[in-house]
Amino acid sequence: MRTKQPLLLAVLLIGALSAVFAAGLRAEAPYKAIRFKVDVTPPVGLDMAYCPNNKVDMPIYVGGVILDDGATRVVWCTCDYIYVCGQTYEQWQRKIADAAGCPPENVFLHSVHQHDSMRVAPEFNPPDGAVDDNGKPFPLEGSDPGYVAKSIADITAEIARLIGNDAWVPIASLKTAETRVGGLASNRRLVDESGKGVTMRWTMTTDPALQAWPTGVIDPMLRTVALVKEDGTIYAALHFYATHPQSAYRRGMVSGDVPGWAIRYACEKTPDTLHFYFNGCGGNITMGKYNPSADAAAIVALGTRLGNYLLKNLDRLEDRASGPIRLFRVEIDVPLDPQRANPEHQTWGNRAYFEKTFDHWKRSSITRFNAGEVNILSFGLSELCIEYQLYAQELVPENFLATAAYGNGIYWYMPVAKAFEEGGYESNVEACLVTPEIEPVLKAGIREALAELIAHPGWTGAPQK
Questions:
Q1: Per residue in 202-216, is it b (16+ CB within 10 Å) or e — as a string?
Q2: Which of 57, 212, 279, 296 is most buried by a 10 A CB count?
Q3: pLDDT of 384-404, one tens digit each?
Q4: What is the overall mean pLDDT for the chain?
């Protein structure tokens, strides 16, 4: 027995050293991550949101990162779609969560909102066999069910494959950057001195008189969260900017549009990094003031401009204190207006679906993701106007806060209260399903989600035990 004592001590010593070494690794790499990117380009001939896909102008993707701190796992997922809508949105959250190994509420699923793309909402489609007065099948109101099924199957299969292959990469730190962007976003609501909407400066506005109007209220900042490996290389970069993303649409060809071109451009310049784009509260924001044309040339011009700003943020990343992943989820009662649900009493389509499932959508969520000094605000709602993003920024000016909107597309526009008096598209019954009470409700939810940061500016959270 005595002869075995040194061996036992050696085993204990090795075990202790291993624990110390492992603790040191954890200190150096507080997170692990997996990045994924899946091509979801629809085939030629398939109906898109506004027109058939007659040609592939640019592939579209669903991608993002799975981030894990050893206790909590989240998925940041961005889709090159105009929307993912309704119960399909919730189903996708559950399926991605199952593949990634986390709760559905930890899946932050957002659309970029390109218009020459797919609306993922098969529940909006006409009934099987429905035909018009000429005996022709109605066009799809939502999306081809086969395409939707294949897309989510491909997405979840890729996530499951990566996790099954233990493709985790240690992430030493999350770094951030903010850059003021010029020549992209502009407010599209042109309101005169009397407080009434004069007209709208749409995405493809080439009228010099409309372009001459001031830029208006925007959030000019591009914010980036970079996942940095132990060797200092950037594994993935999540970029957040608020504007309608398209420069040209209804062209009969699928396209990633301006963000798609920008991401391609940035990835070519930084081949070791995958870039992902999230749209902020850009409901009343377009690139109309700066759109040089109403055709594909604008995609190249504006996409290259945005791409250079993405790269600029990588060059000015700042260190941020690490900390555990914490999620602050706030449930809100959405003030939906039943009179706006289906005023023309359609029997199928998005209006009819919304009316039939009205009660289900009375609750939504706002979630603040926090990891050390990094904060991201995620909205389950869709087209929030820029004032809500600016309000959140004003509440916590000493903290880094990025914003991702365009969650569940069932909700349409979320204007501020004064927009209902000013007039304009965002508050019109054609585009808006809520009452003016949406502003105090949303602002209260934002304040609650940010309450800890408001009370403790710059605070990184409770220390890890």
A1: bbbbeeeebeebebb
A2: 279
A3: 999 999 999 999 999 999 999
A4: 90
> Is 462 inside any structural domain?
no
From the list 222, 417, 206, the residue with the least C-alpha distance to 295 is 206
Angle value at C-alpha 199, between 421 and 256, nearest 5 degrees: 110
| Domain-embedded: residue 10 | no
| Residue length of the chain | 465
User: Using alpha carbons only, how large is the chain's radius of gyration in Å?
Assistant: 23
Q: Is residue 228 part of a domain?
A: yes
Note the pTM of the prediction, 2 decimals: 0.92
Using CA atoms, how far apart are residues 199 and 276, in angstroms rounded to an integer?
A: 33
Domain that holds residue 168: 30-455
CA-CA distance, 301 to 293, in Å (whole number)?
10
Q: pLDDT by residue (tens digit) across 348-391?
A: 889 999 999 999 999 999 999 999 999 999 999 999 999 999 99
Determine phi and psi for 312, rounding to 5 degrees. Answer: -60, -40
Residue 141's CB is within 10 A of a number of other CB atoms, namely: 21
pLDDT in tens, 111-159: 999 999 999 999 998 888 787 778 787 777 889 999 999 999 999 999 9
Q: 70 in a domain, yes or no?
A: yes
Q: What H or E segment, with its residue span, contains residue 160?
A: helix 145-164
In total, how many domains does the chain have? 1
Distance CA 73, CA 139 (A): 40
C-alpha dist (Å) from residue 334 to 187, 360, 376, 437, 444: 25, 11, 21, 9, 12
Asked if 69 and 370 count as a contact pair (C-beta separation under 8 A), the reply is no
